[in-house]
Amino acid sequence: MLSGIEIICVMCHHVHHYAQTERLQLEGAMSSRDVLAVRRHFRKVNNCTAQAFFQHYEQAYNVWEDRSRKTWRVDYGIYSDLLVEARAVRKKWHAKHGKAQSLYDAILRAEMARENRAKKKRIKKR
Question: How confident is residue 117, by pLDDT bands cut at 50, 70 and 90?
Fold first, then answer.
């Protein structure tokens, strides 16, 4: 049973779905630099090393494998209306921008650009 919805930033979304992030890189929808930024974000949020990231990923992948053996039924309950609304927004976005680029990736690139601008400003102040 769905116990709630977690609101997370796009970078955290790419961490939560890291196997999909890697697939997007293989398909050319994300660059190696984008994927490195996702890993860096995890390390920054969790104050850990790259090795800790990969240990976490391996553990999470094992949990996913175990859970994937089960048959699941999804009932969003009181959140169903929000899901319908989100699908409508996504459909409208894809109609405007095409399916080649995902909404998440567009947001990720915008966040990365904003982060890079902030970093350049900090460097200039030095």
Answer: confident
3 three-class SS: coil
Block residue for tokens 């680029």? 101
- Is the pLDDT confidence value at 80 over 80? yes
Torsion angles phi and psi, residue 5, rounded to 5: -120, 135
**Measured distance CA(34)–CA(29) in Å, rounded:** 10
Would you state the structure tokens that stand for residue 89, as one six-digit string?
Answer: 């927004």
- Whether 1 shows a pLDDT value over 70: the answer reads no
Rounded-to-5 percentages of helix, strand, coil across the chain: 75, 0, 25
Angle at 78 between CA 76 and CA 82, to 5 degrees: 75
Tell me the average pLDDT across 80-91. 85
Other beta carbons within 10 Å of 80:
10
Q: Hey, what amino acid is at 92?
A: K
**Contacts of residue 70, Cβ cutoff 8 Å, sequence gap at least 6:** none
- Residue 41 corresponds to which tokens in the numbers above? 């974000």
The number of angstroms, rounded, from the C-alpha of 45 to the middle of its chain's C-alpha atoms is 14
